[in-house]
Structure formats: structure tokens, C-alpha cells
Design brief:
Structural class: alpha/beta
Largest sheet: 6 strands, parallel
Mean pLDDT: 92
CATH class of the largest domain: Alpha Beta
CATH topology of the largest domain: Rossmann fold
Shape: elongated
Oligomer: single chain
Strand order of the largest sheet: 3-2-1-4-5-6
Amino acid sequence: MVKICCIGAGYVGGPTMAVIALKCPKIEVVVVDISVSRITAWNSEQLPIYEPGLDDVVKECRGRNLFFSTDVEKHVAEADIVFVSVNTPTKTTGLGAGKAADLTYWESAARMIADVSKSDKIVVEKSTVPVKTAEAIEKILTHNSKGINYQILSNPEFLAEGTAIQDLFHPDRVLIGGRETPAGLKAVQALKDVYAQWVPDERILTTNLWSAELSKLAANAFLAQRISSVNAMSALCEATGADVTQVAYAVGKDSRIGQKFLNASVGFGGSCFQKDILNLVYICECNGLPEVAEYWKQVIKVNDYQKNRFVNRVVASMFNTVSNKKIAVLGFAFKKDTGDTRETPAIDVCKGLLGDKARLSIYDPQVTEDQIQRDLTMNKFDWDHPIHLQPTSPTTVKQVSVVWDAYEATKDAHAVCILTEWDEFKKLDYKRIFDNMQKPAFVFDGRNIVNADELRQIGFIVYSIGKPLDSWLKDMPAVA
């Protein structure tokens, strides 16, 4: 029986290994992590991450050929294929701070693999890593090899949170990069054989190591660029009276462009986009390509501008102050159908409003109060370190209350900010919400999910990103 071990039981490792176990019943799959609480959760009825369909997959395989364990060294030693899916946070100090990826956890994983291995191993990069990481890992393993052969493969994930299980069942492509040597090609084929049990052959792409590593960064940069492009257009639409939804629809009808990732919003979030672009910027700078670095930096600048623009619009519309005003925040996750809050635009929007002394009442169906308080007090990039290295008892922001009901959040509020496109926010009884709010009552729709005309008829003053401004907003322009 082929044995697979995955180091790291997070958003990538857990779902990916669960689907491999489901689709490959003859392979034993063990997910290992040093976090006792995380492994305990994977072995419980309440999984540590929310992802539609994940529960069913885990329950079908767990205990059969899918196992979760904290005995990292034992299972790494026994494995034929070791996936490494550890954190690669952005460095906060030292060389490349604020841009370069911190490979501390990757390096310690590689050294541990070298220490415990007694048989040949295929080591697979599953985390998002900077180009040439494989070469560094290869050096650590070969210099500590004790006669054992290692092959390093890059197998980046292209999952979208909220649809990860379906993405794993029916991937656009599976990308495997390896050395173009006989041993390297053999390792690539071994991993290809795993995926081939459910993925059509034409969707399994093989490249050299560097192409696979760079393809992941490039894909995320291109997607983020599309969001920043439509968000830049949304500002122009507001200034001219155009409707960004109509503009995006017309542009997306061009078959060369297509319609995906053209929804204007308060900004992009998630664990990958900003981190990967910063990484790309750093690699460009290190390779003497400042113009290319500057190009990709602009994608992040526009994203930050969009979040700031939203906060400015809220404050300007409400007589240029939100001090001591209750503002309901609907949605904190970076997008619907996930509880993930990493780099969610809600963090910057909330911090901006708190900076003007607003009182926030936050509701998200999947994010806990502990997580929200942690996110609002944590330093930038600290979220990407393993959970056991994060503060255990976050400082509480006194101006923030977290509630478990949208109607409770909006009661007596001066304004509602919609920051995540949860389906339930489209179906709320806005007449009931309006009746229980302070007047004038504002709705700032950061996801363009409500019918602004219907809300205006109820009595709301409505701001929708990239849509023609109603007269109130024109009279109180937001300064940049």
C-alpha cells in the first residue's frame, strides 16, 4: 500500500488529503500537525474549518484510510510521498520584510524529514512558495541524506475557498513540476498516478520545478489584477454616473476577457492574493526587474485604495464623523461559504471605522467572536503563523461587539456595512431593519448584493460600489 503523509492540517492539507483518501481507497493518507487542538478537531464532529461538502468526505474516509495525528515523525518516516503544506508567512523583520516569504517552517519541516527518514521519499511542495524554494529544500535534504534519495516536486494548489471540495473533485488542472532527470520524471509519474485515479489525463500538466512554482504566483497575481482592475473602474463609474455592473458585463462579453472575477467589491482578501503578489514583487526586485515589481505593486495599492475609499465614503456620508455611532457590520469572512478571515477587507474597514471612534456590532454566520477580536488586534502578517504561535487570549477591542443575528447587529445602528456576500444578507427583512435603526439610516453595500432601489423606497440612503450615487452622497463627497 502506498503511504502518503501531509505535514500541515490547514485549509490546503486537510481538504486535499481528504479527497485523495476518498478517491484512492488503496492509499493510506495521514495528515499530521503539531497543533493538538487542530488534530483533535479533525478527529471530532466539529471540523476546524468550514467548507461545503468537507464533512461528508472526512466522515466517509476517517478511520478507514484517512487519519489525523500529532505523531509527526512516525508518519513521515513511514511515508512514500510527503506533502508539505506548512505556513509560508510574509516576513515581518529582516531582509525582505513586508514582501519576502518566511521559509522558517518549510526549512524546519525539511530538516525533520531528513532526520527521521529511513527510506527514499518523494517530497511535494503543497504550500505556496517562492520560486526556487524547491532548490533550497533539495539542498537541505541532500546534504543530510545519509544515503537516502529524495525527489522534490512542486504541486501547487489552485483551490478557491467555499468551493474547495468541488475544485478538488473537478480541477481545471493539476500541476506537477519536477526535475527533468530520469529519477525526477519517475517521481512526477508516481504523483501523476495518484491524481489519475479521478482526474482526466489531459488535465494533469507536468512542467519543470521553477515553472510550477511560478505558475502558482502568476495565477494568483492575474486573478487579483482583474479584481483591482474592476475596482479601479468602480471609482470612475461613481464619478461619472456609469454602473460598474453594466460595464463589467459588457467587458466580460468579450470572449478574450470572460466574465469571471469582474465583480466590483470593497476589495480582495484571502490568504494568497496579497501574499503571493508581495512575493512576486520581491522576486522581481531580487532579479533586477524594478519596473515589473512596480507593475504588480500597483495591484495591491489599488486594493488598499478601494478599502480606504469605502471607509471614507461611510464617514463622509454620515456628517463626516462616526464617533460613538453604532455601525452594523454584516460579514467578516473574506468571502461567503468560508469561515476564513485571513486578509479579509473587513479587517481594514473595521479598523478604519474604529479609528474614527465608531462602535461596531459585527455578525458573520461562520466567524467566532474570538477570531474577530484576534484579527482586529493582530499585527499585519501575524495571522499566517501557526495558531500555537499566535496570542492565545486576544486583547478585546471594547468598541466591538460580536452578535449572532443580523437583526441584533442592526438594532439602533446608524448604518449597515455589508462586507461579505453571504446569501442570507440578500434575504433579510430590510423594512424591519430600517424601522429599528437610527435615522437617517444608511446601507453601504461593499459587495453589491442588495437591490438599492428597493432599499431607497423603504427609506435608506444607499451606497453601492461603482453605482450611480444618490443625491445625499453627491452632496457629501468623500475625500480620498
